[in-house]
Design goal:
This protein has 185 residues and is of the alpha/beta class. It contains six helices and seven strands; from the N terminus they run E-H-H-E-E-E-H-E-H-E-H-E-H. The chain has a seven-stranded parallel sheet with strand order 3-4-2-1-5-6-7.
């Protein structure tokens, strides 16, 4: 079974307490994300890549501006064998997919990449559970493949909305799992 892991937006502006749009407690999932990434046969890491006057800043404060330290991923989440999409995938285990919108499926590269990879299963984790993780998880469910969200490797801003997301996700055919289950496989 071909499995692709999805590391959603684990960037310094979200996971560092000093980050521009810090998700409270997100720093605690970073070591788990790092371990999941290291164990993944292939990981697609989404990254916000905003311009200084990005339209999203009408909704959220400025964050993850290209070239700033806040846009970076924590070193523990990066693999040596990585490339930024679009690029050659030969010899890489981590693909960095930059995006300018909340939904990773807004990238014109993601759908063709998924078709090329032809995975049977997707493992999803990162930030923010009820926003960007939601978009990724539900978008992946539309592929008709198995999708799992790693509940101890996601962080939310709103507990109730995250619980609603989990409920809707499982009702739509998704599965909830933990890092212990994934890493034990």
């Amino acid at each position: 079974m071909k499995t692709v892991f999805f590391d959603i937006d684990t960037q310094m502006d979200f996971v560092d307490p000093a980050g521009a749009l810090y998700v409270p407690g997100a720093e605690h999932i970073v070591p788990i994300v790092g371990e999941l990434n290291r164990r993944a046969p292939l990981v697609i890491s989404t990254m916000d890549a905003h311009s200084k006057d990005d339209p999203e800043f009408q909704i959220y404060p400025p964050h993850c501006i290209v070239g700033t330290s806040g846009q970076n991923k924590p070193a523990i989440t990066l693999l040596d064998e990585r490339a930024t999409v679009p690029s050659s995938q030969a010899g890489v285990r981590q693909l960095i997919l930059e995006k300018q919108k909340l939904d990773c499926f807004s990238s014109p590269y993601l759908v063709p990449l998924l078709a090329e990879l032809n995975a049977d299963r997707y493992i999803v984790y990162g930030v923010v559970t009820e926003i960007c993780v939601r978009y990724a998880a539900f978008g992946l469910l539309k592929t008709g493949k198995a999708v799992e969200v790693v509940t101890d490797a996601v962080k939310n801003l709103n507990e109730q909305k995250a619980a609603e997301m989990f409920s809707e996700f499982t009702a739509a055919g998704g599965h909830l799992t933990t890092s212990a289950v994934i890493l034990a496989a």
